[in-house]
UniProtKB/TrEMBL annotation, chain A:
It comes from the Eukaryota. It is found in: Nucleus. This is Origin recognition complex subunit 2. The keyword Nucleus applies. It comes from Durio zibethinus.
Automatic annotation (TrEMBL), chain B:
Residues 62-339 form the Origin recognition complex subunit 3 N-terminal domain. GO terms for molecular function: DNA replication origin binding. The keyword Nucleus applies. GO terms for cellular component: DNA replication preinitiation complex; nuclear origin of replication recognition complex; nuclear pre-replicative complex. InterPro entries: ORC3, ORC3_N, ORC_WH_C. GO terms for biological process: DNA replication initiation. This is Origin of replication complex subunit 3 isoform X2. Residues 61-70 have a biased composition (Acidic residues). Residues 576-702 form the Origin recognition complex subunit 3 winged helix C-terminal domain. Keywords: DNA replication, DNA-binding, Nucleus. It holds the Pfam family WHD_ORC. It comes from Durio zibethinus (Durian). It is found in: Nucleus. The gene is LOC111297310.
Amino acid sequence: MDFNDPEEEEFGFSRNYFLAKELGSSGKKSARKLSDINVVDEQELRAAAATIEPKHQKDIEALINSYKSLYPKWVFELRCGFGLLMYGFGSKKPLIEDFASTALTEYSVVVINGYLQSINIKQVIIGLAEILWEQLKLKRRIPSGNLPKVQQPFSSRSMDDLLAFLDGPEMEENDSFICIIVHNIDGPGLRDPETQQYLAQLASCSHIRVVASIDHVNAPLLWDKKMVHTQFNWYWYHVPTFAPYKVEGLFFPMILAHGSSNQSAKTAAIVLQSLTPNAQSVFRILAEHQLSHPDDEGMAIDNLYSVSRERFLVSSQVTLNAHLTEFKDHELVKTRRHPDGQDCLYIPLATEALQKLLSEIG
Amino acid sequence: MASSLDDASPPSIDAVTENNLQPFFVLQKGSLRKSERKSSGTGKTRRRIDLSPALPKNSENPEDEKEDENMNLRMEAFEFVWSKIKSTIKDVLRDINTSVFSEIQSWVHQTFDTIRSLGTPDFLEATQSFPVITDANSRKLFTGLVLTKNMEFVDDLMTFDALGKHLKSQGCHVANLSSLDFIAKNGIGGCLRSLLRQFLKSTLDPADISILASWYGEENYKNPVVVIVDDIERCCGSVLSDFILMLSEWVVKIPVILIMGVATTLDTQRNILPSNALQRLCPFEFTLGTPAERMDAVVEAVLVKPCSGFSIGHKVAVFMRNYFVSQDGTLTSFIRALKVLEIGRYGLSPEVMWKHVFNLPSCQRVKMTKQTNESLAHAFSELKRLQNQWRAVVLCLYVTGKGEKVRLLDLFCEAIDPESYNKREFATCTKLEKDSILSPSSRQRPSLAKGRVIFEAIHLVRDLSTGQLGKLLKIWKNLTVGIPEINDKVKELQSLLKIEDGKSSKKDLIITPKRHASRIQLDNEKDSKSLSDKAANLLECMVRDYMQPIECIPFHEIFCFKNVDKLQLALIGDPRRRIQVDLLEFQKLLHCSCCISGSNALLPSMHDTSIMYKLAQEHGDLINLHDWYQSFKSVVLRPSSSKRKSRQSPLPKKRKDINETENQSEASTQARFCRAVTELQITGLLRMPTKRRPDFAQRVAFGL
């Protein structure tokens, strides 16, 4: 980074952005659809994903091994009170856990999997307090000798108390700490500001050291200067591994499996098959109307009612409404306002997906 | 003890995958410290139990033990030096704040007396669990507004912490609250709980101010209660105003004095607080030193004066300066940078250092003939001597320019620049030749190639009056005490000044006819002018001859940290840029043989995500997923030259087989595409398609 010219850099950013915008809107924008790809069955896709042949396996291994020479340095920096923050492309989970289990054998190590969707930070802190308690008891040799008695179990104490316990006075042997590994400290389960505040407070405790990894390019935006400089006290390490994000990517939808028209048509079919034949037929009327009037806003409710009634599918507006509620609950049908003020019903599926669906339920 | 350690058994593969889905898990319990193990008699057997078989490392290995010992020694050394630096910095900052702190302290005690003079609650009143009902006048809350003059509240955390400690040592009850205690979610309960925890050392639910009142009434009624809020601009206004209203109701029972930090202007509280809360405040104002002043004091104490036998190279200094001035702006981060530097020093094993001591580039430059211990010792003492000279000159320059906003940090960066020093040397050589020819007036031009700040300081001397010059020379004399070469010259100037002084005072005594007066005055001015010129020349000469930057001295590598990249990497991770570079130039990191580095062509052997990201660069802000997929497919399925040959004769018999493999490869290509998209999503470089635009993904980063 060129520190002498931050303005130039900023200018570059915005220029690039507008260039990209221009490129996007210069008429070259492709109108092709995702559904044009002949997507294989989801199961097949998942099976294929599980057996992707790794590339550069040896090189990646060599790269990860090359970081081993840094382990003593990392330990030293942890002992000096820094937190280690690992970033760079590739999963750093194996690397960090290997570091902990080879170089931090003297210390207790707790791992937080930040890539998971929800993490209860209080549970984590309770767990840490219990480990520290055990450790202090061991260190003193005389159980609960000089230590204050636990008045209440850790699980019923407040967050502040727990943090105060972890931030206890230093031992005579002052580097007895618990190391916390936070995989993806920028992950979905930890991303909210409150959790980050707790993590920062945790990191500043005297008995705690943190080794964390980030993957998101904007992760530093999670922290203010107080957190970065006085609490986390990060020592940055750029350690790209190019290892696949196996666990980290587990909870991300596969772009070709979910959300595509294929998929929603399939779920729609499943829902429809569980409904009564009459309900299915009402849906069919709506679908056929939509296919024959592709440019319309949708089908007016009155229109649908009269057609359904003609075919003896519904006896009253009430029954039709019952069907419609069912459809709407499963997002099979939506309403929108016609220019002339009428509410119209439509099926939020592309034409080809709708045809497929009709053939499936028919 | 061993039994509890046993459960750190090697995790099986199942356990690992299960662990991956746990929000958190214990990877290992801490085993005994190695040193302890050694001392205990049964260490050997226990060690076998402790170490899980997955660890090939065996601490019986003598090399390992040596390494451990080495590490511990380094740790000790680091802690020794760092604690020294830390306490130096602390002292410096305390000195800067002393006057404000004592001002605040005396105000606190005065205010306390004022509150007491309004009357103390009698026994009955004091034991009631509601506030004493009084007139509005005695419901005033005395408030000290401390203007920090600093948008970076991080630096002031230390200051307010120190203020709290200072007041505590003077017998006050102090609680430090931060903006985190004033958040809307917790309401007033949050700050009350924090107060109770700090005063009563316990947490009680529900938090109630009457508890605080009874605590104060019981034992602590002789001392003022001080509540410090470090930055009111970051507090939630409504909670803060509730807090103020509550405290003011109780002020007779609990004589609370509020101290609030304000970053911008002293009337900020008017924007934050409603009028009913404002009415209760009775504000007094205090002002802290500016961040730049604090910075200069720290630089002087740690980098210029000998503090830890530690110095930094020019590039590092410039980086730190720029980082402070234009990027981060906090002293805290500057101190952190110092710590990183300090750690860097202990990264090198001393043995390696000593082995190569005569091969250091700075040593090779001077071509030392004898490589003995004596010559080394001599070189070190020489280094020390030159450093002392350098230090004295820098401080002289600093005191000269101090009043005129010459920043020590800037001065330091210039003074430590080896390049401009070398140029300077060159410049003076040529200048001497020129001087003999040119008129003396040309001397006043800056002879320094780069030293803007240095030149400014020298220039300042020329404009000094006799009195000011005398004061300055006195300081110079004190600063150069250990360096006779400079000290003598300063003394010489001082005596000249004295003579001059004597002359002028004599002249003043002589009653002169009016018409001569102006001329004499002119003469006087001229004399003092020539004197200050002399002083300026002396300073210039000092800069030229005695201010040798450490990087120009042999063996400086041992004491001087020069690796600016390392510092920068440790201090500022730049994930946005670096992660993109990882993807775009992955060959540089993997050093693989299959992907030719330097060529822009996309090869099927490249990392999938890398191919995808490179392809994405060709799109605008929106990427059509279909197109992206097709181009990805064409890259990864592009047959390499060897495969093409075999394909030239497809056998019709195997039609079905081919179909199947094609199908399979389609599935695997799609899976790879999906994985690459997911990985880009994890890095935040890609936003997924929305419902409105189901066929387009969005690019997030444009340019590095």
